[in-house]
């Protein structure tokens, strides 16, 4: 495993993203609060609503999800990168949807950021899986 991939794995593990338990403890400048969890919308899936608080200058390295991620920026600024798309600046009111299995990353700005994220993911799979940066 190369250094970049190891760093991605370490970051995801630290924030609890590679656990299949969405209430897993977070660390390294990230706090996740699950505010809702429901079965569906189809058999074998669940929908999680999560408030994500990110400390200044924290980087969530490249990763994917086993379902759709839809987010909304409540406070702060950051940069969202999605494979095959130009980088986008996240500011309050910015929203996005990431398709299942699509590599993406987030680099937080100089102030704390708060996001509301809804994950509709396959049950029993890790919420996120680290992946190498796209070339």
How are the secondary structure elements laid out?
Elements (H helix, E strand, L loop, with lengths): L2 H12 L15 E10 L5 E10 L4 E6 L2 E9 L2 E5 L5 E3 L4 E4 L5 E5 L4 E10 L6 E2 L5
Antiparallel strand pairs: 1-2, 2-9, 3-8, 3-10, 4-7, 4-9, 5-6, 5-8
Concise summary:
The chain has 135 residues and is mostly beta strands. The chain is built from 1 helix and 10 strands; from the N terminus they run H-E-E-E-E-E-E-E-E-E-E.
Fold and architecture overview:
This protein has 135 residues and is mostly beta strands. The protein has a single domain, classed as Jelly Rolls. The chain has one helix at 3-14; strands spanning 30-39, 45-54, 59-64, 67-75, 78-82, 88-90, 95-98, 104-108, 113-122, 129-130. A hairpin with a 5-residue loop joins β1 and β2 (45-54). It starts with a helix and ends in a 5-residue tail after the last strand.
Q: Any low-confidence stretches, pLDDT <50, length ≥5?
A: 1-20, 22-27
CATH class, anyone?
Mainly Beta
Q: Rounded to an integer, what's the Rg over CA atoms?
A: 14 Å
**What's the number of helices?**
1
What is the tally of beta strands? Answer: 10
CATH superfamily: Jelly Rolls
Main β-sheet: number of strands, strand sense, barrel status?
A: 5 strands, antiparallel
Strand order of the largest sheet: 1-2-9-4-7
CATH topology: Jelly Rolls
Kindly give the count of domains.
Answer: 1
- Give the second-level CATH assignment, the architecture: Sandwich
Give the termini distance in whole angstroms: 17 Å
Relevant terms:
135 residues, mainly beta, Jelly Rolls, 5-stranded antiparallel β-sheet, 1 helix, 10 strands, 9% helix, 47% strand, globular, disordered N terminus
